[in-house]
Amino acid sequence: MSASSSTAPMEHISIASLSHLPSRVQYLRTFIGFTDEDAAALHAAAPVVAPLVPTVVDAVYTKLLSFDITAKAFVPRQTGFTGEATAKLEDLSLEHPHVKFRKDFLGQYLVKVVSMDYDKDETWEYLDKVGLMHTGVAGFAHRKKKPALRVELVHCAILLGYVEDILANAVLNHPDLDLATKTAVLRAVNKILWIQNDLFARHYVRDAELEERQVRIERTSAAAAAFGIFALGVGFARYVAPLWRK
Predict the structure, then answer these.
(1) Res 96: pLDDT
(2) CA distances (Å), 31 to each of 4, 139, 154, in order?
(3) Could you tell me which residues are beta bridge partners of residue 135?
(4) Residue 117: its pLDDT value, please?
(5) Same domain, yes or no, for 69 and 145?
(6) Closest to 204 in 3D by CA, of 141, 155, 164, 142
């Protein structure tokens, strides 16, 4: 038997399909191998992750506040926050009300990652909106008509890596988990965070091939519209010409 005869048939993925969230998610899941078993591993990890959430959140925000370029995102008043904001980076700390307010969102996100139903479109829509909301565009309804919140992709991407490192260390060193469980959880966390990384990047990075296709569509539409106007003009001229000669 030849090597080629034993390989699976090649699946076609159109570039246009990647602009459609469900199709993109399906491609990502298939490519990285995110299965029902991975979802089950994440759900099984909930009792491990839940007690770690406060520690993970504090570690993440300690890291974010250690660089001025990331800390400055916490200065503007955030949607829903009614307490005292700050105008100075030096005033920010883990205990600052504005930072505490933002920490709550990350805590909720971590809980969702190990509890959401990954068979539902709503789950992937939520993860996609998490990426979108950091671009300055209102990802969630409550941010519409609110000041833009933009965090550059470089910070979002490396933060996901930092979160994964914290979770990996916690799982690897957990005394009550056997090797098989640790392996399953770590692989599932790795897969979902890489998918999340793409659901950030898709809102920041323009795909050259997809953009070129969009340009072609726009040019074709413009040409068709121009031809239609020309044809309409010719028809109109043929109609009124006899009238002018009378």
Answers:
(1) 83
(2) 20, 26, 24
(3) 150
(4) 98
(5) yes
(6) 155
The parent domain of residue 223 ranges over 210-246
Contact 211, 18 (CB under 8 A): no
Residues 74 and 150 reside in one and the same domain: yes
What CA dihedral angle connects 51, 155, 199 and 11, to 10 degrees?
-110
Q: What averages of pLDDT result for each successive group of 10 residues across the chain (246 residues)?
A: 67 93 98 98 93 93 94 71 66 83 91 97 97 78 61 95 95 94 97 98 84 57 56 57 57
242 plus 141 within the same structural domain:
no
The DSSP result for 37-56, as a single string, is HHHHHHHHTHHHHHHHHHHH
N- to C-terminal Cα separation, the chain: 84
Measured CA distances, 172 to 34, 41, 42, 183, 187 (Å): 21, 15, 15, 9, 12
Helices (H), the chain: 21-32, 36-44, 46-64, 68-71, 97-113, 121-133, 153-172, 179-201, 208-245
CATH of the domain at 180: 1.10.490.10
Which single residue is written with the structure tokens 């990384």?
197
Q: Which among 78, 113, 108, 110 has a CA at the least distance from the CA of 92?
A: 78
Cα(21)–Cα(48) distance, rounded to whole angstroms? 31
Q: Distance between CA atoms of 119 and 22, rounded to whole angstroms?
A: 11
Q: Give the torsion through C-alpha atoms of 115, 120, 142, 199, to 10 deg.
A: 90
- What pLDDT score was predicted for residue 137? 76
Q: What is the pTM of this model?
A: 0.78
Give the separation between CA 131 and CA 109, rounded to whole angstroms.
12
- Please identify which residue in the block is written with the tokens 């700050």: 86
